[in-house]
Amino acid sequence: MPREIRDVVFVDGVRTPFGKAKGQYAETRADDLVIKCIRELLRRNPDLPPERVDEVAIAATTQIGDQGLTIGRTAALLAGLPQTTPGYAIDRMCAGAMTAVTTTAAGIAFGAYDVVVAGGVEHMGRHPMGEGVDPNPRIISEKLVDTSALVMGSTAENLHDRFPSITKDRADAYAVASQEKAAKAYANDLIQPGLVAIATRSAEQGWGLATTDEPMRPGTTAGDLAKLKTPFRPHGRVTAGNSAGINDGATACVLASAEAAAELGLTPKMKLVSYGFAGVEPEVMGVGPIPATEKALKLAGLTIDDIQAFEVNEAFAVQVLAFLEHYGIADDDPRVNPYGGAIAYGHPLASSGVRLMNQLATQFEQRPEVRYGLTTMCVGLGMGGTVIWENPNWEGAAS
Ligand SMILES: CC(C)(COP(=O)(O)OP(=O)(O)OC[C@H]1O[C@@H](n2cnc3c(N)ncnc32)[C@H](O)[C@@H]1OP(=O)(O)O)[C@@H](O)C(=O)NCCC(=O)NCCS
Q1: Is 347 close to ligand 1, i.e. is its CB under 6 Å away?
Q2: Mean pLDDT over residues 108-125, rounded?
Q3: Could you say which of 38, 221, 282, 370 has the lowest number of CB atoms within 10 Å?
Q4: Which range marks the domain in which residue 89 is found?
Q5: Could you tell me if residue 234 is inside a domain?
Q6: Is there a domain that residue 178 lies in?
Q7: Assigned domain for 153 exists
Q8: In terms of Cα–Cα distance, which of 309, 276, 313 is closest to 291?
Q9: Confidence class of residue 335 from pLDDT cuts 50, 70 and 90?
Q10: Which protein residue has the closest C-alpha to ligand 1 atom 31?
Q11: Does 21 map to a domain?
Q12: Direct distance between the N- and C-terminal alpha carbons of the chain, in angstroms, rounded to an integer
């Protein structure tokens, strides 16, 4: 049977405010965070009948406890979607939500679904990185990877070694700018519309309401960062100030075929152009976005010069700078993370992909002169993922 590949659109995305591990969500379940995101998507899109959601894919890196039990299915049921809506769990560590988006989008393009919910959650306070893992001893004994590959901060130090031009001062300056841009985005109310407030509960402090990103440190100066320890290597370059932290949070988005969106009266915020995932040396996993971007650009028939809006996940400043240096883009290029990134907001691993997409959708809304943008992130064990999107508000479309 001949099939046509269908266009896929990003209809809407939301996220919880991100928390510091042991902070505002210390006594909040991980699954409750993502359930609230799904409910909020349904509330914001009353023209989307819940029974039209054909699949729910939710990512988590640590799939045990309140992030286990096939979280896409349990979250769908608990969010009030009909029992007939299936769901599943997905894992590609930091690119979990990104992979939930690309995998379900491929299902839409193929014709298996009309509308899906995709997202991710990570409660790093309840589930510390590496909880319960049992790496096959062969990985180390057969030297498939260097031991440093299993500690993300060490891979960032290795990346500094590979790019000697990326100094600690440059990484710190990038981190200061991320905090400044995030504070400005908050002041301009560009982030808050994409957040869903979360009721929190503390045995000691009672009920609360999380409405803002807890990790942000507005007013950070280069002088502050210069004093911080380098926990991954003596006299290293990676610090708590130029890395994303240990965070809790969840994201979710609605994707649809262009036809289903039109039928239901849903206005697309972005149109999917292409995506690519790539593997690199695990001990320098931060370079992953470069080959992933090459794959996505090639598939789209575009070059990096066609991309006018970037959302690069800031797991570590050095990894963003390596990406920018590869493409000859300045550290402070205004097209890159104009509202700040994970260094300011936090990086609850498997949730972050949709945060990037939400911020790119805001860039598209604010910048109708932009046609193409990309979201990209590095991934543990040596991978990168990139998704290229087209702006439906692009002013050139009319001419
Ligand atoms: C880097 C890391 C080890 C730091 O952990 P931590 O020591 O618990 O971090 P903290 O938030 O307590 O910060 C450490 C110190 O730096 C200070 N600090 C952090 N950011 C700062 C900023 N922007 N300005 C000033 N001080 C700052 C803190 O106040 C703290 O000071 P203190 O020790 O006097 O209390 C941790 O955040 C980490 O592992 N990050 C990477 C996460 C990761 O690998 N993600 C996956 C990516 S692929």
Answers
A1: yes
A2: 98
A3: 221
A4: 8-127+244-388
A5: no
A6: no
A7: no
A8: 276
A9: very high
A10: 228
A11: yes
A12: 37
Total-model pTM: 0.98
| Active-site annotation holds for 123 | no
For ligand 1, say whether the CB of 241 is within 6 Å of any of its atoms.
yes
Q: How many CB atoms lie within 10 A of CB 334?
A: 9
| Three-state SS letters, the chain | CCCCCCCEEEEEEEECCCEECCCCCCCCCHHHHHHHHHHHHHHHCCCCCHHHCCEEEEECCCCCHHHCCCHHHHHHHHCCCCCCCCEEEECCHHHHHHHHHHHHHHHHHHCCCCEEEEEEEEECCCCCCCCCCCCCCHHHHCCCCCHHHHCHHHHHHHHHHHCCCCCHHHHHHHHHHHHHHHHHHHHCCCCHHHECCEEEEECCCEEEEECCCCCCCCCCCHHHHHCCCCCCCCCCCCCCCCECCCEEEEEEEEEEEHHHHHHHCCCCCEEEEEEEEEECCHHHHHHCHHHHHHHHHHHHCCCHHHEEEEEECCCEHHHHHHHHHHCCCCCCCCCECCCCCHHHHCCCHHHHHHHHHHHHHHHHHHCCCCCEEEEEEEECCCEEEEEEEECCCCHHHHC
Nearest CA to ligand 1 atom 16: 240
Q: What percentage of the chain has pLDDT greater than the value 90? A: 94
Tens-digit pLDDT profile for residues 293-302:
999 999 999 9
Considering its fold, how many domains does the chain have in total? 1
Q: Tell how far the Cα of 215 is from the centroid of ligand 1, in angstroms.
A: 10
Q: Which two tokens stand for residue 61?
A: 């890196």
Q: Is 378 an annotated catalytic residue? A: yes
Per-residue pLDDT at 144: 85
**CB of 286 closer than 6 A to ligand 1?**
no
Instruction: State which amino acid sits at residue 362.
Output: T
Residue 116, domain CATH: 3.40.47.10
Buried b (16+ CB within 10 A) or exposed e, 33-58: bbbbbbbbbbeebeebebebbbbbbb
pLDDT at 2 > cutoff 80: no
pLDDT category at 399 given cuts 50, 70, 90 is low
Is 347 annotated in the active site? yes
**CB-ligand 1 contact for 243 (6 Å cutoff):** yes
Task: For residue 170, report the distance from its CA to the centre of ligand 1, in Å.
Answer: 18
Q: How far is the CA of 230 from the centre of ligand 1 (A)?
A: 10
Q: What is the mean pLDDT of residues 230-244?
A: 98
